[in-house]
């Protein structure tokens, strides 16, 4: 049997390059690449997609939709790393740890939409708690996250690494109109009744994320405390290879969270912090926005679709 053909459309962008690096040297697949002169040729790209077994789209949203529309070969399967299809009912959401059944759904899917980097952290924390009824679906969720500047794509990388890098800000809050594209994705896949408030920021480091969700225990059902929230997260991820939950006692000893702690991996670390006197809990996630938040997740989904073990 010949090796499955994988085509990365957009393999010169940040995510595409990293996916290519992660797949380089593998003998169980065949990577289909285009000559540099053909990368912007719509016809050649369409031919490559239709000649592949699995196409990975690392494109802007509009271009990703166009690429999908160009598929005429019914055997072609797709992983879309853009945000074009993340709330689409006909696409399988590519967060394998979302539910106990999600990995198998991805393995069988024809169309898989990769999660956003921020939603990966938010959903990793919220979905198990909302699904279990510990956090009400109508809880007024607020999410704050700081990412490395690579999350802003090539323009941000150029700002921080180019000729004018000395002028780049150490910290940049954005999305101030509260209309970021990620809240609908988070709301749908977390099972929330209302759109969460999301406030993102970039820091003067290349990659990595710290994302936090504050919870007031007085707004939860009586008897639901930090230990109950932590226990549910621990149960949910007990068998997960790429999501770990820090022990509650270990979290209580931490002074800070390093957004770069998991850079270069496909892992995510979840923590629960508590101020028992005030009844305040802080849920936190650390991940690599270019790893579990992008290229690592895409390769994890690819391996599921290929039937690879240990994913």
UniProtKB/TrEMBL annotation:
SMART domains: Semialdhyde_dh (SM00859). GO terms for molecular function: N-acetyl-gamma-glutamyl-phosphate reductase activity; NAD binding. It catalyses: N-acetyl-L-glutamate 5-semialdehyde + phosphate + NADP(+) = N-acetyl-L-glutamyl 5-phosphate + NADPH + H(+). Pfam families: Semialdhyde_dh, Semialdhyde_dhC_1. CDD domains: AGPR_2_C (cd23935), AGPR_2_N (cd17896). Residues 5-106 form the Semialdehyde dehydrogenase NAD-binding domain. It is an enzyme of class 1 (oxidoreductase). Pathway: Amino-acid biosynthesis; L-arginine biosynthesis; N(2)-acetyl-L-ornithine from L-glutamate: step 3/4. Its EC number is 1.2.1.38. It is found in: Cytoplasm. It comes from the Bacteria. The active site is at residue 117. One of its GO terms (biological process) is L-arginine biosynthetic process. InterPro entries: AGPR, AGPR_dimerisation_dom, AGPR_type-2, NAD(P)-bd_dom_sf, Semialdehyde_DH_NAD-bd. Its main location: cytoplasm. Keywords: Amino-acid biosynthesis, Arginine biosynthesis, Cytoplasm, NADP, Oxidoreductase. One of its GO terms (cellular component) is cytoplasm. PANTHER family: N-ACETYL-GAMMA-GLUTAMYL-PHOSPHATE REDUCTASE, CHLOROPLASTIC-RELATED, N-ACETYL-GAMMA-GLUTAMYL-PHOSPHATE REDUCTASE, CHLOROPLASTIC-RELATED-RELATED. Belongs to the NAGSA dehydrogenase family. Type 2 subfamily. HAMAP family: ArgC_type2 (MF_01110). Catalyzes the NADPH-dependent reduction of N-acetyl-5-glutamyl phosphate to yield N-acetyl-L-glutamate 5-semialdehyde. This is N-acetyl-gamma-glutamyl-phosphate reductase. The lineage of its organism: Bacteria, Pseudomonadati, Pseudomonadota, Betaproteobacteria, Burkholderiales. The gene is argC.
């Amino acid at each position: 049997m010949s090796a499955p053909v994988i085509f990365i459309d957009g393999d010169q962008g940040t995510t595409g390059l990293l996916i290519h690096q992660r797949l380089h040297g593998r003998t169980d697949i065949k990577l289909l690449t285009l000559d540099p002169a053909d990368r912007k040729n719509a016809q050649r790209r369409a031919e490559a997609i239709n000649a592949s077994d699995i196409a990975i789209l690392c494109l802007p949203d509009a271009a990703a939709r166009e690429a999908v529309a160009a598929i005429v070969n019914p055997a072609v399967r797709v992983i879309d790393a853009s945000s074009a299809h993340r709330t689409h009912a006909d696409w399988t959401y590519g967060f394998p740890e979302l539910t106990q059944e999600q990995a198998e759904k991805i393995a069988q899917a024809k169309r898989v939409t990769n999660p956003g980097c921020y939603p990966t952290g938010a959903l990793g924390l919220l979905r198990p708690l909302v699904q279990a009824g510990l956090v009400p679906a109508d809880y007024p969720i607020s999410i704050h996250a700081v990412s490395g500047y690579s999350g802003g794509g090539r323009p941000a990388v150029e700002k921080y690494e180019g000729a004018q890098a000395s002028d780049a800000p150490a910290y940049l809050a954005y999305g101030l109109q509260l209309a970021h594209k990620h809240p609908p994705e988070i709301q749908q896949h977390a099972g929330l009744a209302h759109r969460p408030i999301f406030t993102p920021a970039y820091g003067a480091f290349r990659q990595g994320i710290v994302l936090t969700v504050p919870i007031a225990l007085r707004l939860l059902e009586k008897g639901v405390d930090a230990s109950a929230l932590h226990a549910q997260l621990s149960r949910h991820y007990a068998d997960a290879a790429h999501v770990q939950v820090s022990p509650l006692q270990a979290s209580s000893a931490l002074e800070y969270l390093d957004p770069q702690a998991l850079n270069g991996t496909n892992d995510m670390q979840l923590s629960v912090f508590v101020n028992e006197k005030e009844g305040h809990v802080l849920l936190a996630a650390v991940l690599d926005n270019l790893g579990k938040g992008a290229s690592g997740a895409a390769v994890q989904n690819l391996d599921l679709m290929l039937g690879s073990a240990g994913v």
